[in-house]
Structures are given as structure tokens and as C-alpha cells.
Fold this protein.
Amino acid sequence: MAADLETSVAEPVPAAGLTRRGVLQIVGFGSGVVAVAAATGLTWRAVDGGVFSTGTGSAYDAWDQAGAAGHPVNLVRAAILAANAHNTQPWLFSVTPDRIEVHADMSRTIGAMDPLLREQQISLGCALENLVVAGPPNGVAATVSLLPDPSASTHVATVSLTPVAASGSALFDAIAFRHTDRGAYDTTRPVTVQQRAALSAMVDVPDTQLVWFTTDAQKRTFSDLTIRATEAIIADPQQSADDYQWYRSNWHDVQQHRDGITIDPSGQSALIRAVSKLVPTTQKQSNDGWLSGTRDSQLPTADAFGALAVRDPHSPLQRLRAGRIWQRMHLAATTSGLAMQPLCQIPERIDRESSAGLSPDFTNAMAAMLPADTHAVMTFRIGHPTAAALLSPRRPIADVLRP
Amino acid sequence: MNDAMRRLWPVASVAVLALLYVWVGLAAHGLDHILGIVGGLVVIGALVVAHRSRWASMVLLAVGALPLAVTTWWSIVTPLLAALAMLLGWFAIRNLSRPRDDSKKSTLESPA
């Protein structure tokens, strides 16, 4: 190939046509032009698709705006960084100098994935906990009244603000660093009994308890059930479609909607994430990736599994409290260098069985793993991270404030 | 294909690849931001110095193209850009560093 590309003294060209050397030169030139054109197209696709822009852009600005600044709106800035199901961010806030109202945004539901609104109410509980944690660093004490108006089911809480001397807290400092870690966990570093006990001690209401699954048999049972639940969700056309509605596979969609499930925090390798941004993924590919990630990475590398179990799984009050506890636990885990991830396929199938009148397979199987008369509203895994968890997008505060 | 075109198309191609590197650098952040912008400029610099020293030019080409390809190997894009830059850059530098034989060329172009 060198001979046809290098510059040399031109050979005389016969009048009848090209020489062999001339043909090779043209082929080399053509190949080079095509290769550079293809590289240009691929580069455009990569830059436009955000391959090199992980965690940047306006969709991620909220993570840099959670610092204390002494204004009630800053409590909301902390609240919107809370954990929430499918990154739907189903919240709205009304802010006055002495109180903040938290409302459910009923336009941001997950359909058959959350038919009983369990995950929405847990998400709102998470936001509420962040809001409370952010109070003292912003010079206010936050007092929560859950479900203050029985006639308005979407008004989930009113938070009264009382001026106090500003003081910092480790949990507040962890708010901007708490991310759901969907990657593989370090199997050589166990979570200690003391660490689990410290998390259990954060359950502060009598109708909720934290159940740990730590033995090999318990972990195997939980894993098998989670895999089955994942397969059942994928096989359920309505549930699968409603789940996929919240997937944002296009970089422009991420920046425009600033919500939903994105590829960056999926726990996939950098190579897979780059390919996903270069080549559009189908619902089937997305489901296959979800199942394989759950089965081959997330479940086998977890140090332990857990469940937040309540007496009445349909009680909005108990769900909101469970959400507050989850957020508090996750913030505390973040300060301890632990990784956590909700793995809620089992409760999602339980709700689906209940709402669609299906056989209570997962309902009974999960009940067998829990203390009598308790029901799991949230299940999760815990371990030590192997890599930094990446950011999920967040809507700007202007989008969640009610006039 | 005339002599000038044969001589310059690898140079133009490498220049385009260098600009793509700068583009990637502008889109990236952190270390990759620097490696992309500086790497692209160094690749162009390699073409500029080719007529003085072929080996210095080759070293600059490698120094400009390889670091970003290593740090962002997972992107697929930058290793491809680096491989093309090295391949086409080799031809470009050979062409630029080889003195032109004007007397012979003029003889061929103007047969007596």
C-alpha cells in the first residue's frame, strides 16, 4: 500500500488507460477518503450522543446546587436530589418563608410498574427526608406533618420551618454524593455486622422494620426470586412497556427531559455505555441488558440484601415513612463508603399481582421470607463499590416549584 | 491524479483527523478535554515539522494521537481516529519530508 500512497515521480500514462500503479493510487486515495469520512461521521455521532460528556450539561446542574445558603428554596434543592423510582421525580413543592408543602405530581407515574403508587409515595418520602436533613445547615428546623389534608391525597406533607442556628451534618454533606450504585460490588469486602446494625438503628417508627438477608440460603432465595420477577416483568407486555417509557436512550432526550433511566448510571461498562450512545437500543436490548445485569452482576456481587417491611403495604403513611428511612439509610451508607441499590422487581410484581388479579406467586414467596404480618415495600442490595456511581439527571428547581 | 494531489491528500486527511481530536477534546471534560485539544494541535504540529525531521514528526504524531486514544479506549472513536492518524500520518510525513525532484518532474511534464 505504501507504494501507491507515497509521492513519486509520475509514470508515463499510456493513452489507452490507467497503469496498475495508477489504479492502486486511486484505490488508496478512495479508501483513505472513505475512512476519514466514516471517522468524521462516527465522531459526530459520539460527540452528539454524549459519549464524552458523561454527567455534564444542564440535566446534571442540580447536583452542584445543593449547598447551604440559608433560604427555604435550598431545602428543595436538596429534596430533588433524593432517590426516586425510575427517576420520575414525582414531586412538586410550594415554598413560603415559614413552610414547604410537598405534593405528588400525578403526571409522573410508572403505570403498571407501580399500579398502587407504592414507589411514588416512597420516592416522596425520600425527598421529604432530604428536605428535613437540609434544614439545620440552612438555618431552619423542619417539622414534618404527613398527609395533613385528608381531602387532598396528593398533598403528602407540610414541613414547618423554624429558625435555628445553622449547623452542618454528615448526612447533609452526603446528599450530593449519594447515587444509586448499579455496578458490581466488591466481593472481597464484606459489610460488617456493625454497619448493618447502624443502618437498622435508623428505623425509627414502630410499623416498619428492616429485614436483612445475609446467609447464603437467604441470598440465593432472594436472588432467584428477583431474577424470576425481572423475567416476569419483561414477559408482561404492559409492565414492560410502561417501564420502557421512562428509558432515555438519546442524549438530547436526557438533556431535554432531565429525568428517567439513563445509560450512564446503569452500572454497565464504559464500552457498553459508549456503544449504547452510538447505536440506538431497542426495548428488547434494554430488557436483555437489565436482566443480564441483574442476574450476572448485581445479584452475585451483593454482600447482603434487605427489605423495608411494613404492617400495611397499602398505607400511604407507612410508605412515606419507609421512603424517609430508605433515604436516611442511603445517606448514612454513603458517608460510610457503602454502595446501595433498590432492587424492587419483587414488590413490583407483587403490586402487579394485586392490581391485575394475577396468581399471588411473588406475594407468597416474599411473605415466606419475612416476619409474620409484614410486607416488603422496598427491597435492596448493599456492598462496597468497585467504581464511582455516575449521576442521574435532575429537573431544574423551577420545574418543581408550584406558584 | 496529479502529483500535488498525491502528495497532499494524506496531509489533508491527517489535518481533518486532528481537528476531530480537537472536537472530541472540546466535548470531553477533565484530562480528556486537555488531551483532545492539545493532542490535535500536536498532530498538526507533526505535519508542520515534517520537512525538517521525519523522526521528530513521527514522535509528535504518536505523542499527539495516542494518549487520548488510551484514556478513552472505550469510546471506540478515539482509537479509530488514532489508528487512522498514525497510518495516514506516516504517509503524509514521508511525502512532506521527501525533497521534490523538480528537474525530473519538469522533464516529464514538458517532453522535448
Observations:
- The CA atoms of residues 3 and 105 of chain B lie 9 Å apart.
- The radius of gyration of chain B is 16 Å.
- The helical segments of chain B are 3-27, 31-48, 54-71, 77-97, 102-109.
